[in-house]
Amino acid sequence: MITKTKIPLTWPQVKLGKLFDITSSKRVFQDEWKAEGVPFYRAREIVKLAEDGFVNNELFIDPKMYGRYKNKYGVPQKDDLLITGVGTIGILYRVRDSAEFYFKDGNIIWLKNKNIASSKFIEQFFKSHALRKQILGANPITTVATYTIDAAKNTTVNLPPLPEQHRIVVVLETWDKAIELLTKKITLKKQVKKGLMQKLLTGEVRLPGFRGEWKKTELGELLNYEQPIKYLVSSTNYSNEYAVPVLTAGKTFILGYTDEKNGIYNKLPVIIFDDFTTANKYVTFPFKAKSSAMKLLTPKNEKVNLKFVFERIQIIDFPVGEHKRQYLSEYQFIPIKTPSIEEQNAIALFSEKADKELSLLNQKLSEIQKQKKFLLNNLITGAIRTPENMDTYSK
Prior knowledge:
about 400 residues, alpha+beta, 5-stranded mixed sheet, 11 helices, about 35% helix
């Protein structure tokens, strides 16, 4: 059981410079970067490691250089901490093992573990609101935010006794593990759905009870379109069975979803198509449409299931012209194979069920993340305490 209490006066406020030897790496010039050898990380790779635990690295340094630096200056060891000092500042990666790598000087701050404080506790501390407020409050708003070695040395933490640090880590890592497992489950289900839908939408795999040839039809024969005088997309969160897909013209086709059942436009179902938006230029929401770029696509007749057509569009490899835009006038001549309306309905229903399952899982993930954030911000400050008789112990 975890109980809420006042922030303990017995927790001293300690500067990180007292807990770690804080420095950076030695200079590696750009012309010394290699295509193979010992992995070399910049700030972007550290962020990726902190978020995902792995990185597909593209830069390396010569093993002989690494050996010289290791012997003369040292290299990161297990439970050392690396913190981004430019761009997205204050992102911390705790070194998990003794695998060889080196990192870019100036961009990354190196906290060498002195075994005074738990590195895992400090890792959690760097995810807290208290730390973000401290870092951003200590830095003026500039074109490029920075977090320096001196700033790191002077960053303070309310430091509980080491046993309580370990208990706090155990609690928070339990939630981290739950988030990790659920995220993996969502990713796997997305992959399974994508693979199966690819086969169902092309007729490679048929649902039970369906036979017969599919008819090749141009998109313009399946869909009507109109240009709205006024349309408001209020959000792009998939919320329920009324969610309307927002279709972008770039390689990433689904911009999001909007629930407009009680909105300005109530002619459902409909696909919102924006032939100005590309994968690299998203519209901003709320978005008011009053231009030739925005179209509303609807089924041409009762033999067309819009959900089926929409899903089928997602797996078409549309060519992008020199204008780097795609227009509805170009889309309408693209042929797709379509089955009977009964089979379209069955495939659409299968997709909708998978979407709803993923939506529920994402909602659950969001709730767990909120709960973890609440615990993090309260445990790190001592507003919530862990019982001293906790059975689990982490070092």
